[in-house]
């Protein structure tokens, strides 16, 4: 595969090849797509240059791309381009809700282990009660997110995710 790319017999990689090559190199597949991290310029779409770190964040579903939203007139009468970040489509964004759910699960686990330590060291009841409230809040957040994920058609099975 690599020699075919080097000799020009092959012009590109499919996704499976990209993943296999990244695993062989022991790097993230996204690093093959955007090698000039963090500040190198890359066209994420034709004619849409971004810095590599922004491209990685978009590719990972953390944030939208920058788009020109017109010009702004400065105090000196000169015009400056204004850029805003596009939002990811919330009605189909599975990445953000998954991240939030995993954070809620991690918060539950953290509160659980703090409760266990507090009980073992016979901490005051008020402190244990506060930790229980933190656990309950995280559980409520996780349950709300599971409902949201189900509405998105995501497979949210019962069980404990490995965080």
The strand count comes to: 4
Strand order of the largest sheet: 1-2
What percent strand? 5-15%
Instruction: Give Rg in angstroms.
Output: 23 Å
Count of separate DSSP helical elements: 6
Class from helix and strand fractions: alpha+beta
**Biggest sheet features:** 2 strands, antiparallel
In round numbers, the mean pLDDT is: 86
What series of H and E elements makes up the topology?
A: HHHEEHEEHH
Distance separating the two termini: 35 Å
Model regions low in confidence, pLDDT < 50 over at least 5 residues: none
Shape: extended
Q: Helix content range of the residues, please?
A: 40-55%
Give the SSE map:
Layout: H1 2-7, H2 15-25, H3 29-33, E1 41-45, E2 48-51, H4 52-59, E3 66-73, E4 79-85, H5 94-120, H6 125-151
Antiparallel strand pairs: 1-2, 3-4
Helix pairs in contact: 5-6
Task: Give structural attributes.
alpha+beta, 52% helix, 163 residues, single chain
Question: Can you tell me about this structure?
Answer:
By secondary structure, the protein is an alpha+beta fold. 52% of the residues lie in helices and 15% in strands. The protein has helices spanning 2-7, 15-25, 29-33, 52-59, 94-120, 125-151, and strands at residues 41-45, 48-51, 66-73, 79-85.
